[in-house]
Design a protein that fits this description.
elongated; five-stranded antiparallel β-sheet; mainly alpha; 5 strands
């Protein structure tokens, strides 16, 4: 019989090398029925909590944007901000829900000495469908929230107030107030609007160094232990979501914390900008809402800024020696008595009557500006600020009226009329509720609230850094799940962030030109 088999093998050309190979595979799985019940309950609670948070935030928005003042514009404003608040709340809720679910699997599947749970293999497509869909949903919501947030912040109205009076310098016969200081401050503010504390490029370079350079992405392989020595083992998208999201959060927060830690030695640009306003003798009011804004007190300590460089250096020396007035208004009602000497930034709340007066004054100024730019004289090379100065002269006294009124208000604070300034409680500041009822604040003088935290940064990208970090992570995870390539996902996320910067810069500059009446050739 053996000879017969051997003859048959040789007749087929196989000879002695004929073999029959057998392979075995073992699959382990766990019952996930109870797991899915818990996840569905938690998911429902997450959605419910996000909707409650949206409702509360819309209510707070109505307190700062009363229908009694906005009238017909209330519905459109509430709709736009309602969409943003809805997308933002759901983004945070669903993102951290996914982070919690992925952390459960990573901790109990990868980091336990004894295996208690077995993650479903990637071949079970149905088990990962809900996770993929929610990654897509949170990325879409995050992208919409980012675009709306930048658009809303870009719509802030900016007013420049020049405190310089007509005078004769010791060496220069400056009978007129120069517009160049205002133009310079406006350009610096325009650049400041796109400044970010976090450097997204460096964040992703460091991230890719760990994920691709050190091959940390292999830690997300479908194997129940932490190791980089994996071959032909699939990368699990849930485990990778947790790994990459946590790493990006740590890198981003470390970057942000380090920049804030060295703040004493290297002041942040939005802090230095207030000093620039003081040197230029230019104050600013930034309206981020119909009745609320931020006031940057830029009064020069020596009372003037026009002059020679020697005069400017002399003024700095006098201020260093304490021979000038404080840069800040002196009559600030602050819980910290030392704040009165340093605070130059304020929250300001206008009554309905005063805000309408301001709107009417500057609408008149804007109309004259448009008339000047469309049919007025050309700007001469020798005096490129003529158009700006012509409007100031041709509009009569509209801007001078407001500057005179505001100067009287600030001087009133200097006379320690403490009713003009007050402190907001920590709780009110935290949740964003105005310290006065704006719906019934129909008449009266504006109220100033000392703001040592420079909250005006909320209208520039630097004030939205942590929010934009979360949006970046959500969009990165979306592209990572779709492409499976960390480098491609990082590049596409970077492209979205650059688009936000472009959007903030372009809309912000157009808005700055419109309300500050600065020719586009002088806004670099």
């Amino acid at each position: 019989a053996e000879d017969g088999i051997r003859d048959a093998q040789e007749s087929r050309g196989l000879g002695d090398v004929y073999k029959r190979q057998l392979s075995f595979q073992t699959f382990y799985s766990s019952d996930t029925s109870s797991y899915w019940v818990i996840v569905q309950v938690l998911y429902g609670l997450t959605l419910f909590g996000s909707l409650i948070a949206t409702g509360v935030r819309i209510y707070i928005w109505t307190k700062s944007n009363p229908a009694e003042y906005l009238g017909d514009q209330f519905a459109s404003g509430a709709f736009l901000n309602g969409i943003y608040l809805f997308c933002d709340s759901l983004t945070k809720g669903i993102f951290f829900f996914l982070l919690g679910v992925s952390s459960y699997w990573f901790l109990f599947y990868k980091l336990q000495a004894n295996l208690y749970v077995v993650i479903p293999p990637m071949t079970n497509v149905q088990d990962y469908l809900a996770f993929r869909v929610n990654v897509y949903i949170v990325a879409i919501l995050a992208a919409i929230a980012g675009l709306l947030r930048v658009y809303i912040d870009s719509s802030a109205k900016v007013i420049f107030l020049d405190w310089e009076r007509k005078y004769t310098s010791a060496r220069l016969e400056d009978k007129e107030v120069s517009a160049w200081r205002t133009l310079f401050v406006a350009n610096e503010y325009s650049e400041l609007t796109v400044y970010r504390i976090l450097n997204l490029e460096w964040d992703f370079i460091i991230f890719l160094f760990f994920i691709r350079g050190l091959e940390w992405q292999d830690l997300a392989a479908e194997t129940p232990y932490l190791t980089l020595d994996v071959d032909n083992i699939a990368i699990n998208i849930i485990l990778k979501f947790f790994l990459t999201a946590i790493l990006l959060i740590i890198i981003g927060l470390a970057n942000y914390g380090l920049r804030r830690a060295i703040y004493i030695w290297y002041p942040l640009p939005y802090v230095s900008f207030v000093d620039l306003c003081s040197v230029a003798n230019i104050s600013m009011i930034i309206f981020d809402g119909p009745l609320h804004g931020y006031y940057l007190h830029g009064v020069n300590a020596v009372g003037k800024a026009n002059g020679t460089m020697e005069e400017l250096i002399k003024a700095f020396e006098q201020e260093r020696q304490g021979r000038t007035r404080s840069r800040a208004p002196l009559g600030i009602a602050s819980s910290n008595p030392n704040d009165a000497n340093v605070i130059q930034t304020f929250d300001v709340y206008f009554s309905h009557q005063r805000k309408r007066e301001v709107d009417n004054l500057f609408e008149k100024r804007r109309s004259l500006w448009l008339k000047e730019t469309r049919s007025g004289p050309k700007v001469s090379e020798k005096s490129p600020s003529n158009r700006f100065e012509n409007v100031l002269q041709e509009e009569g006294s509209s801007i001078e009226q407001f500057q005179s009124y505001w100067r009287g208000k600030i001087e009133g604070i200097d006379r320690r009329e403490r009713s003009l300034a007050f402190d907001q409680t920590t709780f009110e500041r935290f949740i964003g509720i105005p310290p006065v009822n704006l719906a019934t604040f129909t008449t009266g003088e504006p109220h100033l609230e000392p703001d040592p935290s420079y909250s005006y940064k909320n209208v520039i990208l630097a004030g939205r850094d942590l929010k934009l970090l979360l949006i970046s992570i959500a969009i990165y995870e979306f592209w990572d799940v779709i492409t499976g390539n960390t480098i491609v996902a990082a590049i596409l996320t970077w492209a979205y962030q650059r688009f936000l910067v472009y959007l903030r810069e372009s809309i912000g500059e157009d808005n700055l030109r419109t309300y500050s009446m600065i020719d586009d050739r002088f806004l670099l």
